[in-house]
Amino acid sequence: xxxxxxxxxxxxxxxxxxxxxxxxxxxxxxxxxxxxxxxxxxxxxxxx
Length: 48
Fold this sequence. Notes:
Layout: H1 2-16, H2 26-47
Helix pairs in contact: 1-2
């Protein structure tokens, strides 16, 4: 389940958000989006 969710997450960011593929460092936006998502999930769990 976790692998499938990660694959869908990657496809959504890379393919469905066109601005994520623009420029030389297209993977940087994907990594930033993933880090932001993880940070918000951690804050949600910690702060209840």
